[in-house]
Amino acid sequence: MKKLGCLTYGIVGLGLMGGSIAKSIRENVLDVQGATGKILGADRNAAALELSLEQHIVDETFCMEKVDVMLSECDFVFVCLYPHATLDFLCTHSAAFKSGSIVTDISGVKALLFENIEKFSREDVDFIPGHPMAGSEKEGFVNSSGGIFKNHNYIIMPVAGVKKENLELFKLLVSTMGFTRIVETDSVTHDSKIAFTSQLCHVIASALVDSAEDTGVTAFGGGSFEDLTRIAMINAPLWTELFLANKKELLAHISSFESSLSKLKNFIQNGDAASLEKTLTEVREKRISMGRIDSVYKA
């Protein structure tokens, strides 16, 4: 197996996530004794490229017009763009990837990629779609951090024919970056589960803030409102694209949530204490059981 510290990594898109991936690789893989690898970065934002060099996170930067040159040198490429931009990039630049390289994305919706995979797949390049389950309500390289991945989940969806040694190398890399649970699944399962655990949560948080009578309500907060609505400080263009790209799955979860909310509303409206307490007890037990899945999904 190739050694992580000897590889050349390419990051396409040095925003919050791309910057955090670059920093994590720098801190955990390349800033160790004996490492000879390097990180190359590409972005349309000249300020992000300049800052990544100033902070010694990347070794060389490329404007997007020169990205093919970068791709030809990289053993491992992370495409850190929005879903549609990711597909466009892979289709446009597939011929530029170094033979034998590993290519991954971090898109939050996978159906689009898998529906078009024949447009950019190559027999001599292993494409391993992935989704790091971490992030921040802040944006841009300036807010990126190599520490945001500690103790988080990483979801991977290997396509058919991926070399076993490259898949193991991928898992080793994300584990070294701080991810403690790697879930291997298919794109359909991914999009369904993510619609619930991520996209629905952002919808609920946004609706809760939208329903607030005034912005001064936080003077009466005790932590619950703040915990529930942190993610409502949302990257609107990104999450609009994610919601619409996964519309079918997300709408199904919204309908289910509306049903549960309506049930609780009726219990409260009717003063049905017995049913309300029974449901809340069941909810508590269900939530506790959700923390017992480590042994099932641990890679």
TrEMBL record:
Sequence ranges assigned to domain Prephenate/arogenate dehydrogenase in this UniProt record: 7-298
Superkingdom of this protein's organism: Bacteria
Keywords, in A-Z order: Oxidoreductase
Pfam families according to UniProt: PDH_C (PF20463), PDH_N (PF02153)
GO molecular function, one term: prephenate dehydrogenase (NADP+) activity
GO biological process terms held by the UniProt record: tyrosine biosynthetic process
Keyword Oxidoreductase attributed: yes
Keyword check for NAD: no
SUPFAM superfamilies: 6-phosphogluconate dehydrogenase C-terminal domain-like, NAD(P)-binding Rossmann-fold domains
Signal peptide range in chain numbering: none
InterPro entries according to UniProt: 6-PGluconate_DH-like_C_sf, NAD(P)-bd_dom_sf, PDH_C, PDH_N, Preph/Arog_dehydrog, Prephen_DH
PANTHER family in alphabetical order: PREPHENATE DEHYDROGENASE, PREPHENATE DEHYDROGENASE [NADP(+)]
Protein name: Prephenate dehydrogenase
